Amino acid sequence: MRVIRKLTEEDFEKYVPLIRGAFPDTEFDLPVTGGNLRERFVMAHNQDNSSEFYGLFEDETLLGSMRLHHYTMNVFSHPLPVGGVGLVAVDIMRKKEKVGRDLLSYFLRYYREREVSITLLSPFRVDFYKQLGFGVGTKVNQYRVNPSHFQNRGTKKHIIRVTELDQELVLDCYQRYTELTHGMIAKTEMEAKLMFADPDDHIVAYKKDGRIEGYLVFKFKRLCPEDNFSAYDLIVKEFIYETPEAFSELCTFLSSQADQIQRIILNTQDEDFHHLLVDPSNGYDNLLPESNIQIHQTGVGIMYRIINVPKLFGDLSDHNFGGKTLTVEIRVLDKLLPENEGNTLVHFQGGRASLLDEGTPDVTIELDIANFSSLIMGAVSFQKLHDYSLVKVSDPRFKKELDQLFQPVQKPICMTSF
């Protein structure tokens, strides 16, 4: 018989071989203790109250595991509790036995029972998680830029190297940015500690009048050490800024590294980032058809899943859905979580949503939970879903109003890795 339960300290003897088999050669974001991997996981298990480790057991044999994360996320300026899952691992001898599916099903119900309406994860395979109802979020673009192609405004007089005295100011800057940015996740206490724990990480910041208004976290990667000990790439891990002035001086700092750095590698969900750069080409000299220059590589970032549709609209009762006045019946299909499937009648008055127990809708829409999750998070427009035949509309005359209803000001931005 299969049982899913929270891991005990003794279970980590079984957990480490399992996780090593699932993620060989992976560096795990864990407390630095000087001990072995088991001790580091045990420390995270005991000290990080924002996460929990769970395992799927069959007759006390550990077949799979996952790490649940209790987060707070900015959802259209509403700080909502959300559930994240990471390190989903299955014993290599028990693949294709629905271990992962059972773990994910438990994960969804775990948070639904705690009245959370949104869950999220970083996918290892998009198709697998789409089948489980997770919708694609904002794309991530990786730039590989020559430092001299960042704009150099001629001054970086407010740029400092962050010391222990500045740590709280850095975290305050991140929190202010989170409060203004849809999709951002507040740093947990453990994440805040780990941010300053890696000796290979460097942090510089824009500091003015005793306040940090932007910062960079980065590390160096040596290139061809046997040939040239002084050639490096600079890998940006976190880039936060609140003002154009902070952004400008941080870009000037990056530009000034050109004498030693060959490429700055930066992952961003900013779709307009290429406008900043003198030359956004990635250095591979690849041409797309019709002589179009390749400027970045693109990947799928965070995937989202709504696990309680009526609860979500209750959570967002103060959000303005496009200023529209309209009554919509939303029919959601959810095979994995049938208690989330069904019809939700929502009346929008001047953009404010309220649930109705009964009534006649102006229009009915029908779509699966993955596409609904992408739509409600603002990762895709209603018009595009309709163009792709991924949503059904009872009356096509309402297509424009529905597109305006769900049109976000901003796509979700997430810088949290888990």
From TrEMBL:
Q: What is this protein called?
A: N-acetyltransferase domain-containing protein
Q: Which PANTHER family match?
A: N-ACETYLTRANSFERASE EIS (PTHR37817:SF1)
| Superkingdom of the source species | Bacteria
Domain N-acetyltransferase as annotated: residue spans: 2-157
Which Pfam families would you find in this protein's record? Acetyltransf_17, Acetyltransf_9, SCP2_2
InterPro entries in the record = Acetyltransf_17, Acetyltransferase_Eis, Acyl_CoA_acyltransferase, Eis_dom, GNAT_dom, SCP2_sterol-bd_dom_sf
Provenance organism:
Siminovitchia terrae
Q: Which SUPFAM superfamilies match?
A: Acyl-CoA N-acyltransferases (Nat) (SSF55729), SCP-like (SSF55718)
